[in-house]
Amino acid sequence: MYPSRRTFLRQSLAVSAGFVGLSSYLTHAHALAPTAWSPTKQWLELPEGFTAKIISRWGEKMSDGFFVPNRHDGMAAFDVNGQVVLIRNHENSPTPTEFGPFNQDKALFQKLGKTNFFDYGSGEKPGLGGTTTVVYDETTQTVREQYLSLIGTNRNCAGGSTPWNTWISCEEDVTPAGDSHETAHGYNFEVPAAGKGLVEPMPLRAMGRFNHEAVCVDPTTSIVYQTEDSGDSLIYRYLPNTPGKLHQGGVLQALAVQEQPGLDTRNWKARTVMVNQSLSVRWITLDDVEPTEDDLRLRGHAAGAALFARGEGMWFGNNEVYFACTNGGQELAGQVFKYVPSPYEGTPREKESPGVLTLFAEPNDTDLLKSCDNLTVAPWGDVVLVEDKANSHIRGITPQGEIYTIGRNVGSDSELAGACFSPSGQTFFVNVQNEGLTLAVTGPWEKLRRA
């Protein structure tokens, strides 16, 4: 019999005060069958009944004649005319060139014009980050086509999907203009799921210039929430002037805790935030959101914004925002926060019933959680996240804060990234970053739903 989620869980005491953690070890597990990538290589350890298949890998020739770039990162899945469309980030810099879509072939680079790139790099060192789009047939479990959809950016780490079927790709890079860089970096870019080929690389400037990591969008208000990958990062929200039209400008704000200006939520030197503690939130409007210097977070904190420990993955669930802080907590093992927006979010009435921030999980135990990174919300409501460390795991967290393991990377020391489910909920997609692999995981997910 397939073990339910509860059989994954073994009670143990976590260091975090007031938090009962649960062991992360599977009671039943097996390695996936060998794949086309290697006749002997095993990549993921999964529960019985689950299998994984490599559907895309670095160096493959794509439908547009370019090569699949390396360093797969954040990702989301969309339904476009009955097909699953994956939009996938690539966390590449201008070098090494073999990580990019041109391989070492200068002729392929010359197939594109300067206007196709956000940063052409003076024709010598173009940005090799960006996105690829993968059209996947979930019935046959095959890729129908894949192609470049954004190019010329740097270190596209994570991002997030929008309710209007686009992907927001985020640069985790604040390289200024100069030398071979023709423009400054540190922006978000929007890529439509239904698009074909490369989009015009237009930065979403009003969303701020900083070390972007991930975003999520409230489908009711179109407000965009953003994380920042820095040890002294902020959590931001973007109030668009026109819902669904992010390029038409808006207001950028930073999260602050009421009556606790500049609260340090990292719990590094002292425990300032307890697990399950609820904190009322206010939002501080920021100015000069495209600074030449990378000081937006510093000015925001000086104005009272709360500090977070490397904000990374972010996802909008059932009227709540979940986000990971990779090295938060007393043991630097990671934290997961939950933010419930005000019923009047983004309006003058929000003071009547403020949004609420809660420290959802901080086990301070690397057997339970270490360096949480990309995350998503499963169809059955649990948070599912991947870890940014060697021997990385795919973890689940129930609404009650119980942590369990779904899988483990046994094929390499690479981090896992890009966690997301297909619109049907039948397929879970995940990337093995350093190997440049995208895997599709299938199995009896309904067992976890019923557990």
Average pLDDT score: 90
Q: Output the structural class.
A: mainly beta
Helix content: under 10%
Extended strand count: 26
Computed Rg: 21 Å
Instruction: Indicate the proportion of strand residues.
Output: 35-45%
Count of helices? 3
Distance between the termini: 14 Å
Give the spatial strand order of the biggest sheet. 11-12-13-14-15-19-18-17-16
Contiguous runs where pLDDT drops below 50 for at least 5 residues: 1-40
Domains counted in the coordinates: how many?
3
* Inertia-based shape: globular
The largest sheet is:
9 strands, antiparallel
Give, in order, the helices and strands: EEEEEHEEEEEEEEEEHEEEEEEEEEEEH
What does this protein structure show overall?
- With 451 residues, the chain is mostly beta strands.
- It has three domains: 1-54 and 394-451, no CATH class; 62-203, no CATH class; 207-364, no CATH class.
- Helix content is 4%, strand content 36%.
- It has helices spanning 106-109, 296-302, 445-450; strands at 30-31, 44-46, 51-57, 72-80, 83-90, 129-137, 142-153, 156-161, 166-171, 188-192, 212-217, 224-228, 236-240, 250-257, 278-285, 311-316, 321-325, 335-340, 356-361, 372-377, 383-387, 393-397, 403-409, 416-421, 427-432, 437-442.
- It has a nine-stranded antiparallel sheet with strand order 11-12-13-14-15-19-18-17-16, with no helix packed on it. The chain has a six-stranded antiparallel sheet with strand order 1-2-23-22-21-20, with no helix packed on it. It has a four-stranded antiparallel sheet with strand order 3-26-25-24, with no helix packed on it.
- Strand 8 (156-161) and strand 9 (166-171) form a beta hairpin.
- The relative contact order is 0.16.
- Residues 1-40 have low confidence and may be disordered.
